[in-house]
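Below is how a single chain appears once it has passed through the pipeline. First comes the sequence as given, then the structure the pipeline wrote out for it. We keep one example in the README because the format questions we get most often are answered faster by looking than by reading.
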Amino acid sequence: MYAVWVAPLLLLSAVRLTSGAKENVVVVYAQLGQPAQFLTDPSQSKDGFYRRWYFAEKFSGPYEEMFFRHSLGQSQITPSWKDWIQVSDDDSLTLKKVNDTNFGYFKYELKEKQDKSIDSVYKLHKVTLTQNPSSAVLYGQSLTLTCDVQTSQVSTTITWIRPKTADAARKTRGSGGKILPIEKVSWRDEGVWTCSVHYDRRTFNATTTVRVVDLSPAPSEPVYTSASTAPLRLPCSLVSPVEWKEVRSKGLQGGNWSYVPASDPRAGPHVLATLSPEPTPQWNIPAGSKMDGPALQKAPQGNDLSLSKKEVTAQDRGTYTCALSFGKGVHLVRAIKVEVLQVLVLPNSKMFEGQRMNLSCTLGPGRGDLGDLEVKWVPPKAASLPSLGTLPHPPSLSIPKATVGHSGTWKCELWRKDTRLTYASLPLKIERVPVDVWLWVGIASTGLIIILLIFIGRSLVKRFRQRRPPRRKTRFCCCNNPKPQKGFYRT
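Resulting structure:
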């Protein structure tokens, strides 16, 4: 049951009516279990007065004191009322939670002297808002809301306010005002319905929360995912948090999850999981399907029917259907479309410098037009691409000559306006071009040939020098006997 706060739940009538000779009553409406407020006149001077609040079941009394405030500011709440009321600085009284014993008379007293006082009496009237059936309502069935207003001294009229999700065609005026029938209930009718009581140009709102056994609406847009953002969650839930015992009481027979691949839409649906409602509700998942349904087992209420998939691949694109079956031919079905984002590279993720590299961010074959979706590339830090200077980026990138700087993780983000839907990443490795082994063999052979030619050349030169006869040298000397007349002579 939702905790619904509608404030104020009580409105105060501005008109004081006379019943009998001295009865002067301010009408206040309240709903059981909700707070109530009794407003004092803010224009009335309270300086120098003793202020008290009293309660009685009858106008004539006897009155029980609830609150006292001294003219100097000292205040005190009667112990029996301490947990039930609070009083503001202007002496307005608030009942924190109205119960059956509070529907009586509340008197506010301003007293200056023993013989002079100003009294204001408030009469609390009950507004009861009920629904039939009082339990959760199965999709397609009917519901009746009844708003009973306790008779007071003022005339009243009733109008109804539907939840914001309710169909605009839903009528909001019931039979005789207080009864509102709702036919063919659906998830749109789940939420807070308000009975507005109008009197003397004032309004009091009583509320009730309608619970519906129906699946929540499927996402209006596809669920976008990728291998980088796994696991994939397939959302499916009952629109109201209802215990499984109550769901089974509506005639629950079973349920299932099925899948139709986008690559072959004509193929029949593949069953991913079946629901076993008894004794403990759980998903029966075939082995090897890599699906998981932990939410159903962990939640005491039967509102979460979601499945998840730990690993995501391109083959997971398609339409997933969540279905529940009840007796009398009632079937609740919701379809969810799943799109898987990929980063593809040609020729492959391992290339050499100088090769042309083509990258594409895609949702699958034939999905070049992304509509209102935009792409944002996040390249490796060392990569420099002038074409990525402005957003949005093109879905495909072409790099004429890849370099080692293009190595690293390339990430493609998918955006719709200011919301990032998902992203996909791909690691790339760009290597330097390897030198051919035979080229090294040729270089080595050429070196050996050059060295051999040098060796042979030196050997031939040496051998040539050894075969040439030695040339006789002419020697000169200076002798004493026979002694020449002058100088040297040849011997």
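Helices lie at 244-249, 294-298, 437-467.

See the next section for the split statistics.
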